[in-house]
Amino acid sequence: MVALFLLKKKKMNKETSPISRPFSVVMETPERRDAPSVTDRYYTRWYKTDVKGKPREDHCILQHSNRICVITLAESHPILQKGRAVKSINYQISAGCSRLNNKVSGKSKRGGQFLTELAPLCRITCTDGVEYTIYSCIRGRLLEVNEDILAQPSILLEKPSTEGYIAVILPKFDESKRVTEGLLSRAEYEDVISKRATQQPELC
Amino acid sequence: MLPLKEKDRPLAHKLLAAGCCARCVLRFCCVGTPSSYCQSYEDTSRELLAFVSDMGPKAQNDSSAEEQAEGPPSKKVKLGSCQSEGQANGEEPDSGVCVACLGVLQGFCSHDFSKKVSEAVKSEDYEFDNMVLFVSLPAQLSVREHACWLYVKKEVREKSLCLNKDDVIQVKEAFKWTLQGMLSQELAVPVVPKSQFEVGVGFVHPETDVDCHFLAGTCSDCFKPTKNKESVFTRMAVVKALEKISDDRFCREYPCPPQRVKTACASLDTTCLHVSVFVAGRYNKFSRSLPQTPWVIDGERRMESSVEELITQPLLAAFKADGFNFSSSGREDVDVRTLGNGRPFAVELLNPHRAKFNKMEVHLLQEEINQSSDKIRVRDVQIVTREAVAHMKEGEEEKTKSYSALIWTQKSIVQNDIEFISDIKELKVAQKTPLRVLHRRPLAVRQRLIHTMSTRYLDPHHFYLHLRTQAGTYIKEFVHGDFGRTKPNLGELMKTEVDILELDVESVDVDWPPAIPE
User: Fold this and answer.
1) Complex ipTM more than 0.85, yes or no
2) Which of B31, B382, B419, B439 could form a disulfide with B26 if both were Cys (CB 3.0 to 4.6 A apart)?
3) In CATH, what number is assigned to the domain containing residue A173?
4) Number of domains in chain A
5) Which residue of A14, A141, A176 to mutate against B (max B Cβ within 10 Å)?
6) Is Transcription regulation included in the keywords of this UniProt record (chain A) (predicted)?
7) What is the pLDDT of residues B276-302, one digit of tens each?
8) Mind listing the pLDDT tens digit for each residue in A164-175?
9) Does residue A154 lie within any of the structural domains?
10) Which domain range does residue A162 map to?
């Protein structure tokens, strides 16, 4: 049983999209990046919109080819809209649980808090007093939360899809293919966004 | 003529009566000359019987002595049996199998067996100049030996002689003395104490496997059950228990002399094993679509070939090896080239049927690998020792590596903008385990040093970055920052978004294996 598990793990070792492309292609339009970014190369973008029924509270899950997922705010999330600023971020989601206490050890990442789709990751309070909860969106083991945004909340606004990520989650090996079943693809997400724009004007 | 003395006679008589074979008697008489065991079994037993029947009045206390004094020797004390004892009790007719060696020193010390073994070795088609014989005997032989020794110990003490257990010749030794000469002749190579080529013969005797079991009761801490081993009664454990048990206790728990048996040992198939040969060298990788090891997911190959396969295939064929272990001083990604002198590697060839290659032949092998593909190149290919391979792993942890990377910048740059990079020395970076390997590595922060950097400007959005770094530094993550989990990173230093388009390993600074001038 153990041997089989390790064998399966071995398969996931390699990244699927290498960075190389012909140099000539690079030279054509140097200013606009025509080469796919790191995120484009290695991650698939999945979305969950109106999480927990809250309008426009959209999350973006970046799924690496090795099945690790990075939870981020989708560009349509209210926090990222013009004129907002973040006052504080709190990883203490309940009296007994702080995501900051999460500790994993070893290759199997033992000890990480197990999350279900609607498990809260953190609460973000904006300067105008509105509080938002960010959710896991997928089932899996919490590996780490981004502590840099505690010290510098501005990163969350400036680079929500890279340095401003919220958390890193490792789904169970057996569930890795099914983990995105409840999520929207990029195309489906864009569809939802465009439908919103036609239905009602965007709220500030 | 057997080198036996007067004092050996009562010992020999006692052992024969108990059911020992002629050669075991010689062993307990401490006959230490190999040639004494090389006679045929028939000759040996005949001479021994002759010696024993030539007895004086001393042995007349023994019940069977009367019989012996009367008739011709061949009928009286038959080897491996004592008719008066056995048949008087209505037991089965005696099998003639020795109670001490269980037949190992009887039927198996013959040309027939030797031929069987040498045929098996020849059929496996190995090349070898010498060989070592490895013999595996059932654990219960130690128990029976101990019982025989205790049995005769009483006898010699009465005669105020001394018989140390260490003076008794071991079954294994006597067996090797008889078999080695024959094997050596048939295979036309010397049999030596240490060799790279090992021929293994083994024996089993299921009938008496239970003989060891009583030791678990007397000495339970010697027998710890382990998952891997089939039986907890290993030879080593049994020997240990025998050292601990007192003579009295042993005699109470186990018959001295040991009981007779119905069958002789059965021999296991002959095994052949050649020690591993290690081939080392350095490899260059010129392709950006070649993995180091085979890339297979769900039984499907995702990418053609691999560095490992390209190097090992010709070696496996030439050395006629059963398998291999490929290792290298670190490794690079699929899309990264390895330039310069290349990266040290070592291949352990398992059970090679051919192991001797001179420098010329090894050089030809190197050429064969180089001709087979333009995706890799090997150099300094040579046969090395197992110990030498440790140098290579040293390299993985301790030595520096240098790289060149093609960088894209989002903001527009001029030559001046990248000058400052060359001034940065011994830059400390803290790298959290990159997300791309986090599924198979523990989460940790690694402190690494980037010793030096230099740049070559290309255009407003591109430049080449050369770096010399500590072993274990993730270059790609140093450039793009890996979600800010590597700090500092190039993007932070240049205050713009950057990406890495191409990466080459320029050198792996390990001075092993030794360079071979072309």
Assistant:
1) no
2) B31
3) 2.40.50.100
4) 1
5) A14
6) no
7) 999 999 999 999 999 999 988 878 888
8) 999 999 998 888
9) yes
10) 39-195
